[in-house]
Known about the structure:
Distance between the termini of chain B: 25 Å
Largest sheet of chain B: 6 strands, mixed, barrel
Number of helices of chain B: 12
Strand order of the largest sheet of chain A: 6-7-8-3-9-10
Radius of gyration of chain A: 18 Å
Shape of chain A: globular
Helix content of chain B: 40-55%
Distance between the termini of chain A: 29 Å
Number of helices of chain A: 7
Radius of gyration of chain B: 29 Å
Oligomer: heterodimer
Amino acid sequence: MNAAIIIDQVTKDFAVGGDSLRVLHGITASINSGELTYLIGESGSGKTTLISIIAGILYPTSGGVQVFGTDIYKLTDTELVRFRLATIGFIFQQYNLLPTLTAAENAAIPLIAGGMKRADAVDRAKALLDKLNIGNQADKYPRAMSGGQQQRVAIARALVHEPRLVVCDEPTAALDARSGRRVMDLLRDVALAADRAVIIVTHDNRIFDLADRILAMEDGRITSDGAHMPQDHG
Amino acid sequence: MNWVAIRMLTGDRVKFLGLVFGIAFSTLLITQQLTIFVNLLMRGASAVYNVPTANIWVMDPVGRTSDVTLPMPSTALDKVRGVPGVAYAVPMLRSAATVRTPEGKVEGVTVVGLDDATLIGLPSKMIEGSRESLAAPDTVIIDGVGANKLFGKMTGVSGTRLELNDRRAVIAGVVDATPSFTAGVILYTRYSNALNFVPGTRNRLTFVLAQTDAGRAPADVVKAIEARTGLRARTSEDFARDGINFIVENTGIPINFGITVVLGAIVGIAIVGLTFSLFIRDNIKQFGALKAIGVTNGTIRVMVAAQSALVALIGYGIGLFMAAAFISGTSGADAFKGFYMPWQIPVITAGIVIVIIFLTGLIALRPVLKMEPAEVFR
């Protein structure tokens, strides 16, 4: 398998009061294409910080990240934003759908942001919503949809522009166990391919068995790397 | 992405209407107050505007406005007539008097004595009666606003007898004149009648109204009149401006209206600023998500600018329409008679609205621009 992401000696410090707090301690890892990779760990372990850096939305204090061969922190700000738009799809814990847009319009946003005509973008989003089995919800507003349906719209928004990397922040946290597993199955079916990668930050031990690889973090370091949940996480 | 921005805004109806209301209210307040202010100021020059047939006003050297002047000897008229470039010159008498109606109502009035032969200085549009009726003895023509003030109506007052400074006066007609700043009653009569109506001193001539020969610049003739007669001469435009400036310099009106206009802008900034900031705050996570997805700060600026422009356009349009409707709807009332909205006022208001929307947009936008996209993961 090819390395989709190479993380090289990444550190991250945050200013807290007058002091500097190091939350990532020289992390080095690689994440492969074609794998569903979980980042797990207790709150404060640094997993959200690490995924933010991998996704190109938080500059590391030192070290570098290559995403499909591009050293993303050597890009200019504008290039990095364009790179994210073209290459990365985001799924957020709270979905962050725009409440005044329909499901299809929400899902079409990355295409519209990329310059596609609105009608074409919405058509393409509707086709993806069909694929995600919520085609009949395409014209509904988020407030009229269940949490599971909203998360599917968020998945459609993350995938509509066919990004090679999808990063997910607690995608099942707000869902019941059954819906959560469905969402994970869906991600595996739709988002994963030989030349694509999916990284999921999660606490949700109900879905640990669905991972291809689990990176466990503790105190800003990767403490475990394997195909199964480490013993001390339950 | 502007379409997304507009949908974000218009979908939140309460805030959208709040923003539109803020701009509309500001526009209404600023436009309406500026219009009243400008028209009130222009009433300071109503005496000049009521005389379109003379382009030079000559007065005693101490004269400042149509109401602040000193009578001249009657020889002043001949002196002005003798100045090269003057086509014709006629006398005008303006003086305060007291009138009593048959019902016993007493009112302070301005008596305006006009050249007996030409009646130059009498406004051209008659509401009732005719100019020629002033030829009859002891007759006066009353202005429309004055008739309304004295009798509660503008027509059907011809033939009414008045007691004008202890003398009998008969109303011969009603003329449509621009009201004065105080909207007082104006009685027009022949110059020879005015001399009888108004008890006076040796000098009775208030103004000489002159018209220049065709092709002569009024400003040049004004200089010539001043040089040859020692009197003060002003072109109509300058004399009108003198009347306006007198009000500006001697009353608190500009400050009061200025305060209202500033308050209108502040209220607009407050309502729009708060509502816009609330709207942005409510959507901060969504904006953060857009930034993470790959929407640049530049695009977000354009999105907020599109939202601001929409609010400004609709709010300004509604506010301007309401102000125009107010001015149009009240123009029949004596207090607002003849009021109109000069084109400069909507332009000034548009400028203020742009400032309001720019400032509030900038304030509301700051947290979005400062927000790190990584915050959506927290």
